[in-house]
């Protein structure tokens, strides 16, 4: 039984997609990406999320060595499968051909085995395979729906054109895209396309990979900084210093409203439309609980506009990924 202070609102992903909590949970950080994580504590955290009313749990086959993240989540599913809208992904890595139909079939079976379930509710193509027409990849994913292994289909980091081509093959319930006060590019082309087609947008890294939480007052506060710098140019020291300073208006407004900066950043995202579902991924129970409570925050439109003006598109310092990573997004 949920012991949340107020019920977590629900939103539907896509015209006929799954009904999910307005704030979901991105589980990648439970596999040591941003710092050490203890499996027993992580499992308790996942159970706590369900108790609080969160039902959307997001993972991927590449999170952690040897499918660690999916295996971890299997411990939650063993007891509470019917309470979880389970999302996982396939098709990212250095190998070629990860969008080919034969790979799609192998990937889902491997994920189902690690997760210990017979179906996933939402199955994403993690990145477009440039060597395979999107129609072929989505056609194979549609076969998984007909086979009962997958409930709904999703794409991640795609262009509007690719989304339209995919949607013509089989309805797409959701596109997962980086979206936050620091990353507002989806507003320019992607969101108009998702809304035209009736597709939900799942916002990953909604807190700027931690910078928008206000937890960092200096570069030295950032856990696992060397790993983050290797992955994300925004964590290179000069950019990071500037980006931490950029959060001042958010921190000031959050204090004025008696919210945490993370709650305010999430509430701003939720105010962008009922089709937007952020999936923050803190490993700390207190932060997780505070983030979930952001789903009940209703911001005055003037506050939404004030934050939008304080964080215009392009204000953040540094690219989202290094060049090889940027080459794989919005294809």
Radius of gyration: 19 Å
Which class do the helix and strand fractions yield?
alpha/beta
Topology pattern, helix = H, strand = E: EEEHEHEHEHEHEHEHHHHEHHH
Q: What is the level 1 CATH name?
A: Alpha Beta
**End-to-end Cα distance:** 42 Å
Tell me how many strands there are.
Answer: 10
Low-confidence segments, given as residue ranges, are none
What's the main sheet like?
8 strands, parallel
User: What is the CATH topology?
Assistant: TIM Barrel
Total of domains: 1
Count of individual helical segments: 13
The fourth-level CATH homologous superfamily is NADP-dependent oxidoreductase domain
Strand % is 5-15%
Strand order of the largest sheet: 3-4-5-6-7-8-9-10
CATH architect. name: Alpha-Beta Barrel
Helix proportion of residues, in percent?
40-55%
Cα shape: globular
Q: Residue-averaged pLDDT, rounded?
A: 94
Domain NADP-dependent oxidoreductase: 22-309
InterPro entries: AKR, Aldo-Keto_reductase, NAD(P)_OxRdtase_dom_sf, NADP_OxRdtase_dom
Keywords: Oxidoreductase
Protein name: Aldo/keto reductase
Detail the topology: elements first, then pairings.
Blueprint: E1 10-12, E2 19-21, E3 25-26, H1 39-52, E4 56-58, H2 68-80, E5 85-90, H3 101-115, E6 120-125, H4 134-146, E7 150-156, H5 160-169, E8 172-178, H6 190-197, E9 200-204, H7 225-231, H8 237-246, H9 248-257, H10 261-270, E10 276-278, H11 285-293, H12 301-310, H13 323-326
Parallel strand pairs: 3-4, 4-5, 5-6, 6-7, 7-8, 8-9, 9-10
Antiparallel strand pairs: 1-2
Helix pairs in contact: 1-2, 1-11, 3-4, 4-5, 5-6, 9-10
Protein name: Aldo/keto reductase
Keywords: Oxidoreductase
Domain NADP-dependent oxidoreductase: 22-309
């Amino acid at each position: 039984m949920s012991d949340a202070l107020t019920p977590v609102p629900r939103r539907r992903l896509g015209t006929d997609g799954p009904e999910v909590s307005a704030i979901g949970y991105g589980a990648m950080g439970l596999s040591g990406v941003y710092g050490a994580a203890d499996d027993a504590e992580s499992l308790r955290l996942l159970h706590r999320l369900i108790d609080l009313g969160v039902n959307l749990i997001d993972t991927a086959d590449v999170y952690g060595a040897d499918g660690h993240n999916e295996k971890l989540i299997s411990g939650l599913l063993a007891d509470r499968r019917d309470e979880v809208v389970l999302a996982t992904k396939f098709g990212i890595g250095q190998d070629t051909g990860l969008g080919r139909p034969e790979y799609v079939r192998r990937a889902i079976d491997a994920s189902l085995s690690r997760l210990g379930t017979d179906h996933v509710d939402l199955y994403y193509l993690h990145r477009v395979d440039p060597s395979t027409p999107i129609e072929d990849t989505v056609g194979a994913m549609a076969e998984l729906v007909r086979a009962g292994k997958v409930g709904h289909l999703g794409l991640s980091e795609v262009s509007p054109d690719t989304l339209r081509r995919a949607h013509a093959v089989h309805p797409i319930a959701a596109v997962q895209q980086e979206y936050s006060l620091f990353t507002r590019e989806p507003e320019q082309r992607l969101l108009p396309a998702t809304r035209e087609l009736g597709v939900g947008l799942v916002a990953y890294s909604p807190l700027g990979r931690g910078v928008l939480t206000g937890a960092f007052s200096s570069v030295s506060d950032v856990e696992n900084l060397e790993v983050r710098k290797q992955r994300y140019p925004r964590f290179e020291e000069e950019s990071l210093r500037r980006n931490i300073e950029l959060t001042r208006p958010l921190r000031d407004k959050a204090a004025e409203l008696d919210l945490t900066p993370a709650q305010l950043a999430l509430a701003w995202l939720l105010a962008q439309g009922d089709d937007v579902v952020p999936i923050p991924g803190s490993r700390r129970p207190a932060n997780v609980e505070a983030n979930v409570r952001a789903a009940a925050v209703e911001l005055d439109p003037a506050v939404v506009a004030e934050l939008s003006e304080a964080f215009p598109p392009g204000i953040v310092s540094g690219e989202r990924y290094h060049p090889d990573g940027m080459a794989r997004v919005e294809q």
